[in-house]
């Protein structure tokens, strides 16, 4: 059994056996624990789960979106990535400019009412098309506020200056790999009201030893079934990219979660996944002609040898 799937499935079992039922912002309900850590050895393979298919291209395009400092979903839609659509859609449907049918609580209602789901899908398609083709609409309703890309690349300091935290980390690794300040923080208390979704993975830190780069990322809140497999793979790609630019090998990826939860409408899916036997982990291949991580595009990051079980569908709690 590969250790990445085992480590993740152990967490799922632990929550089901020891978690507490809690209400949540979305109204869905969760089984939750507080405080959990997992470690993944990146030398043993790329930690993309094999007990269900996880869409690697979506993970990479989202990460590149962050690294570009972008906060508008247009880039994601251009790359057929819809994982942030609901947040921009909510912004539009709650505005005075929206004139369509009532979309209040669309996340839950679309799961429970097929007739409403048809209306929801129609309005969502209108939203997507307008973001792609209407610059003014995209600027107003495609932008999600000062989310990850803004905080990573253009952090606003109390001194009025902006700071590129990713570039700082790269420069420091090259200059002083023993630094204990190789840290990026996405949680800006003064900007929470200007973010469509406050950061869930709010901080990460790098560590260099024996020519290997390790990363620890921290999450305040984590949807274990849908979100966590993406988060693990995304920070693994980021670690590979920064190690590449800095001339290092990869070491460990460490996850630290606070409110770690399984949504009540994901329990059946989790149980299905727990019944599956893990398979060999894939690897990733980077375009070595690209020197800066900011020059990478989707086609420069290749997944090799991925042979997972089939995907398992589940609704997103918005």
Walk me through what this model shows.
With 318 residues, the chain is α+β, with helices and mostly antiparallel strands. The chain has two domains: 3-72 and 146-304, 2-Layer Sandwich (Thymidylate Synthase, Chain A); 85-143, no CATH class. It has helices at residues 3-18, 56-67, 74-78, 85-93, 106-112, 114-133, 135-142, 148-153, 165-175, 227-246, 267-274; strands at 20-22, 30-41, 155-156, 162-163, 183-185, 201-209, 212-223, 249-263, 283-286, 301-304. A six-stranded mixed β-sheet has the order 1-2-8-7-6-5. A two-stranded antiparallel ribbon has the order 3-4. A hairpin with a 2-residue loop joins β6 (201-209) and β7 (212-223).
Concise summary:
This protein has 318 residues and is α+β, with helices and mostly antiparallel strands. The protein has helices spanning 3-18, 56-67, 74-78, 85-93, 106-112, 114-133, 135-142, 148-153, 165-175, 227-246, 267-274; strands at 20-22, 30-41, 155-156, 162-163, 183-185, 201-209, 212-223, 249-263, 283-286, 301-304.
What topology does this entry show?
Elements: H1 3-18, E1 20-22, E2 30-41, H2 56-67, H3 74-78, H4 85-93, H5 106-112, H6 114-133, H7 135-142, H8 148-153, E3 155-156, E4 162-163, H9 165-175, E5 183-185, E6 201-209, E7 212-223, H10 227-246, E8 249-263, H11 267-274, E9 283-286, E10 301-304
Parallel strand pairs: 7-8
Antiparallel strand pairs: 1-2, 2-8, 3-4, 5-6, 6-7, 9-10
């Amino acid at each position: 059994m590969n250790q990445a799937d085992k480590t993740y499935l152990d967490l799922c079992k632990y929550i089901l056996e020891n978690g507490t039922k809690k209400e949540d912002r979305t109204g869905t309900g969760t089984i939750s624990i507080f405080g959990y850590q997992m470690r993944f050895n990146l030398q043993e393979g790329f930690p993309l789960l094999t007990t269900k298919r996880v869409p690697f291209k979506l993970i990479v395009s989202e990460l590149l979106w962050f690294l570009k400092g972008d906060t508008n979903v247009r880039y994601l839609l251009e790359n057929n990535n819809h994982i942030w659509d609901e947040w921009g859609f909510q912004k539009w449907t709650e505005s005075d400019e929206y004139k369509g049918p009532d979309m209040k609580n669309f996340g839950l209602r679309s799961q429970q009412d097929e007739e409403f789901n048809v209306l929801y899908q129609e309005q969502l398609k209108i939203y997507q098309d307008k973001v792609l083709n209407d610059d003014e609409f995209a600027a107003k309703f495609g932008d999600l506020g000062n989310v990850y890309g803004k905080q990573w690349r253009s952090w606003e300091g109390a001194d009025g200056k902006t700071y590129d935290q990713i570039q700082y980390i790269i420069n420091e690794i090259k200059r002083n790999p023993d630094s204990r300040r190789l840290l990026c923080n996405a949680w800006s208390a003064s900007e929470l009201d200007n973010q469509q979704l406050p950061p869930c993975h709010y901080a990460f830190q790098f560590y260099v030893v024996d020519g290997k780069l390790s990363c620890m990322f921290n999450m305040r809140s984590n949807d274990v079934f849908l979100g966590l497999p993406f988060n693990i793979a995304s920070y693994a790609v980021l670690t590979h990219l920064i190690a590449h630019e800095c001339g290092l090998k990869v070491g460990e990826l460490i996850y630290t979660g606070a409110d770690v939860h399984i949504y009540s409408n994901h329990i059946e899916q989790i149980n299905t996944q727990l019944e599956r036997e893990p398979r060999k982990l894939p690897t990733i291949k980077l375009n070595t002609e690209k020197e800066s991580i900011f020059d990478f595009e989707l086609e420069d990051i290749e997944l090799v040898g991925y042979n997972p079980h089939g995907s398992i569908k589940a609704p997103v709690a918005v």
